[in-house]
Amino acid sequence: MKKIQILGTDCPKCRLLAEIVERAARELGLRYELQKVTDLSEILRFGVMVPPALVVDGSVRVSGRVPSLEETKKLLSD
Q1: Which of 46, 63, 45 is CA-nearest to residue 54?
Q2: Domain range holding 27?
Q3: Sheet of 32-37: strands edge to edge?
Q4: Where are the alpha helices (DSSP H) in 1-78?
Q5: For position 60, which CATH number holds?
Q6: What's this model's pTM, rounded to 2 decimal places?
Q7: What are the tens digits of pLDDT across the range 6-38?
Q8: Buried b (16+ CB within 10 A) or exposed e, 60-75
């Protein structure tokens, strides 16, 4: 099971990233756990300075932007 985290302050871009991630994971048929991390000190521990960010199994995959659905699928598959 993949552990997927969305780092951000629940802004519109953060919510959009969460929607895209959930759609990509469903389309890939992944078993996953999605966690939204909104605590700034926890976000900074990942080294993320510009949210939103996507973290997969503890690794920051993208930060500061919302990737497309296709790019998100690749990020979740790698």
Answers
A1: 63
A2: 2-77
A3: 32-37, 2-7, 53-56, 59-63
A4: 12-28, 40-45, 69-77
A5: 3.40.30.10
A6: 0.94
A7: 999 989 999 999 999 999 999 999 999 999 999
A8: ebbbeebbeeebbbeb
